[in-house]
Amino acid sequence: MYSFNKIIGHSDTIKSLQNSIKSNKVSHAYIINSDDFISRDMVAQTFAKTLMCVESDVESCNDCISCKTFEHQNNPDVSYIDSEDKKSIGVEQVREKLIFDINIRPYQNKYKIYIIKDADNMTESAQNAILKTIEEPCEYIILMLLSTDYKKFLPTILSRCMLIDLKPINVDSMNKYIVDNYNKKTEDVDIYAAFSEGNISRLDNLIKSKEFTEFRNDLIEITKMFLKLDIENIMKIKKFFELNEKKYEEILNYIYIWYRDINIIKSDIGIKYLINKDKKEELEHQANEITYAYLNRIIENVQYLRENIKRNLNLKLATHVMLLNVKG
Known about the structure:
This protein is about 55% helix and about 10% strand. It is α/β, with parallel strands linked by helices. The protein has two domains: about 5-165, 3-Layer(aba) Sandwich (Rossmann fold); about 210-325, Zinc Finger, Delta Prime, domain 3 (Up-down Bundle), CATH 1.20.272. About 30% of the residues are buried.
């Protein structure tokens, strides 16, 4: 059931959306952006449902005909457009499901809402097709463009939409969510929260994955190779990155978290701050084998890659350069 009080985190966004409803200052077009598909869709669907509710303002009542039909996805004034298993959303699809429909007034609600999933995959022609709707909207039309990379929209679309760029959920909220929704041991909670990086969708995939424990053990073996970056270990690390290219970002994140824990041990800050608490002995062993200077080189170079990974880097070359920089 869609409800603002069931959304994990994003309190500032929720407050802003509720205020816009209460003050009757709802925009005609929104871009809701996040690679956390679960949170992004929850925010969009809850906002749409609340706008449609005829009995309440800042929180849907769940009892009116509009709320009930929305939950069953048969509200006549809410339309969904997606890529339909194609790589992009084309102009014909947009015309058929949106352009030719917008002049028909709402059947039973104040608004007609169009939710376009994977909207950043619209072709340029499709984006241009909805531009007039955004520039000269009917008073009852609201567009919600759901995306993972809002920079793929045309500048003319971006400048005319209200951008809601959802940020990662904080660690405390993630920990509570894991405890409340999954049967996990206490020592596992920090690991899953750290790996998911405030992303509910990523967390859900990790917990459902049967390969996660094995993958984590492989990564710990990789961290051991960092302690002796000879030609053999450099080749093994590069091979591991190549074989797991789709998990490249996860690998970097875990290596960073691992050496963050080593830094905590070397600094004697306190075991309670460790994320990999269950691997304390291995962390202590590596901490004794590594100097502060070398540790900082690893952390700095891994962090640089983490920050720049989405800039269309040549990952094979980037990995090679990182390892050479760490080796010094």
